[in-house]
Structure to design on (661 residues):
């Protein structure tokens, strides 16, 4: 059981966030103050605050705030999407997984990647052509404003909330480790910086924070990979040979091991990753920042290229670390090779940067990792605040009659509230294992947000009733399945046996949502439902031709 | 919805060029999506049921298994597909869509 168990928990660790750190680093000791890292991080903060000041002078309207006025280019947006997606977990978690498991880690990275081409082929243009500020705009294009917008806002906010907690806790742990700062200080710092970026600079500042972070991460990764190749005399063969020689599994790291020997978990995880990505509000929101469908398409092309390139770098780093970090006792607690790694098992890339680039490069690399977290939490906070002010306040509460300035005020207040709540929850959950929250965020995104969104764009037969009931069924089933899974039922609640054996709910909750949406829509014979189906042609024409992007709902 | 808008929509939907655009573009997008999914899940099934297939070394003198180049190839292939889609959309489909708008709305 314990072998099986560790396999499951490893599976659960990965979905894109820093949850890995929370799980692994929890008990890690605070490191000595790292002056180089703090210095370089201060430079990053100063530059980004400068950008926020510049952005605040250009942010006057709600459109500026939510979407940077739609003036981001495809290339910039591609970098920003990559910046949003390449979290600290993909850098640290994935390289550590490859370090520990070899080829199995590579299989994961493909799962993280494969959703992007699908988002381009099926969604990118339509999102741009139909949406304005939030993805709820698209869902409510022809459906009942009150009910479906509440559902979408609820779906967005739950995803943002769960994801944000995981990120905050991960941030605190990581900073404690890399910079030697106190956990609480670290969480408060992240929360305050996030509030500053978003409240004053809106989408424009958030976008630039993400772009700068993506560029830094790609540069740092490339530089480290060059150092790696230089270390091995520019021979990939030698690198791999040394890895096989020094890994306890030997030649087996070259082929699939037991990580994915359970096909149900593997498929469920990959479905959750693929379609969960397509239902994350902060990712969807990025498509509204470009001016038209051409730029929306280009952004995915660039983002996919950067993300793919980055994953290949991470694979090289992970394999190289086996013979460089894995054979050096100074990176292990008490100098015991193969024991507990200094700072936790996710520190492989960090130790590699120190081994090859010295402490100055380690400082730079740490600063990049921190900026990565800041960029991701800012995107999340912005998506959450938009959902509160645009969906809940302006559209539902004020029935679309809110003035620009009052909507803007509500957004800023929401951002501050989200920031404060995030700081409190981050501090409260310091020593909790939050792995399940990641599964939950992705599960809800894939089983509620995604089915409703994709069917509203593609299926004429969809009615509000079907969307609301099916969306709720998806949301609740994802929630319940995660609750009954090993990661909550056993690890958090301490029961001996999980009722539902898989940590990833998507394989079950997503098809369930689709079926319920379909059946209820079919059974819905109301006049209202009929009118919504008739309005599909209008939606479809706008989606195909992108006639007038700024036209709000057809009601 | 006002009648003017309804009429315009109906006119576009009846337009043959519009129908052709919708048909060809959705077919292209679906084909590419299916291709990506089939390749990815075929790979996952090999991983789950026939992992030994990926164990073969790339050459007699190397320890590197063919799994690695296959993985890199998937990254590159999927990225190239996004490039293909963007290129075809920017040239062929956008032109078709401009033609429709010209014909109907002018």
């Amino acid at each position: 059981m314990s072998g099986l168990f560790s396999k499951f928990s490893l599976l659960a660790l990965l979905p894109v966030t820093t949850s890995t750190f929370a799980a692994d680093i929890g008990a890690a000791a605070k490191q000595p103050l790292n002056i180089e890292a703090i210095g370089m991080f201060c430079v990053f903060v100063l530059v980004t605050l400068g950008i926020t000041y510049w952005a605040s002078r250009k942010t006057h309207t709600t459109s500026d705030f939510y979407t940077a006025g739609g003036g981001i280019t495809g290339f910039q947006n591609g970098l920003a999407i990559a910046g949003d997606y390449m979290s600290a977990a993909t850098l640290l978690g994935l390289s550590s997984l490859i370090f520990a498991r070899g080829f199995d880690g590579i299989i994961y990275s493909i799962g993280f990647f494969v959703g992007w081409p699908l988002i381009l082929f099926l969604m990118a243009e339509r999102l741009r052509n139909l949406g304005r500020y939030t993805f709820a705009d698209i869902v409510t294009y022809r459906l009942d404003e009150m009910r479906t917008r509440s559902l979408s806002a609820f779906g967005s906010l739950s995803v943002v909330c769960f994801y944000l907690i995981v990120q905050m806790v991960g941030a605190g742990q990581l900073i404690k480790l890399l910079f030697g700062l106190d956990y609480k200080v670290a969480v408060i710092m992240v929360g305050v910086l996030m509030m500053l970026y978003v409240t004053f600079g809106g989408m424009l500042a958030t976008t630039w924070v993400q772009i700068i972070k993506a560029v830094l991460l790609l540069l740092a990764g490339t530089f480290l990979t060059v150092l790696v190749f230089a270390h091995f005399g520019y021979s990939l063969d030698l690198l791999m040979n040394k890895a096989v020689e020094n890994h306890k599994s030997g030649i087996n790291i070259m082929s699939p091991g037991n990580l994915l020997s359970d096909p149900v978990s593997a498929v469920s995880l990959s479905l959750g990753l693929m379609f969960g990505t397509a239902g994350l509000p902060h990712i969807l929101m990025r498509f509204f920042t470009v001016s038209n469908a051409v730029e929306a398409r280009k952004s995915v092309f660039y983002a996919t290229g950067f993300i793919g390139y980055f994953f290949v770098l991470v694979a090289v780093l992970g394999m190289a670390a086996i013979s460089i970090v894995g054979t050096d006792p100074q990176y292990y607690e008490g100098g015991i090779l193969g024991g507990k790694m200094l700072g936790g098992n996710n520190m492989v890339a960090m130790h590699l940067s120190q081994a090859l680039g010295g402490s100055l490069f380690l400082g730079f690399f740490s600063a990049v990792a921190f900026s990565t977290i800041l960029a991701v939490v800012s995107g999340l906070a912005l998506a959450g605040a938009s959902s509160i002010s645009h969906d809940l306040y302006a559209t539902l509460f004020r029935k679309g009659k809110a003035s620009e300035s009052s909507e803007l005020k509500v957004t800023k207040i929401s951002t501050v509230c989200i920031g404060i709540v995030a700081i409190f929850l981050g501090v409260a959950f310091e020593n909790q294992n939050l792995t399940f929250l990641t599964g939950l965020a992705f599960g809800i995104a894939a089983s509620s947000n995604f089915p409703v969104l994709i069917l509203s764009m593609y299926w004429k037969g969809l009615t509000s009733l079907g969307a609301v009931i099916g969306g709720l069924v998806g949301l609740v089933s994802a929630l319940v399945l995660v609750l009954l899974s090993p990661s909550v039922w056993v690890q958090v609640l301490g029961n001996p046996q999980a009722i539902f054996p898989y940590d990833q709910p998507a394989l079950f909750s997503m098809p369930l949502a689709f079926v319920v949406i379909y059946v209820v829509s079919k059974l819905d014979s109301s006049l209202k439902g009929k009118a919504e189906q008739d309005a599909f042609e209008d939606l479809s024409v706008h989606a195909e031709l992108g006639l007038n992007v700024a036209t709000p709902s057809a009601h | 919805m006002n009648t003017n808008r309804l009429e315009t929509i109906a006119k576009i939907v009846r337009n043959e060029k519009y129908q052709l655009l919708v048909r060809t573009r959705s077919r292209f997008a679906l084909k590419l999506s299916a291709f990506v999914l089939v390749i990815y899940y075929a790979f996952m099934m090999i991983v789950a049921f026939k992992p030994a297939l990926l164990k073969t070394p790339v050459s007699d003198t190397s320890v590197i298994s063919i799994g690695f180049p296959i993985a890199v190839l998937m990254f590159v292939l999927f990225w190239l597909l996004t490039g293909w889609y963007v290129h075809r959309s920017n040239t062929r489909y956008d032109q078709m869509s401009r033609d429709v708008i010209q014909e109907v709305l002018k």
User: Anything to note?
Assistant: Chain B has a mean pLDDT of 91.
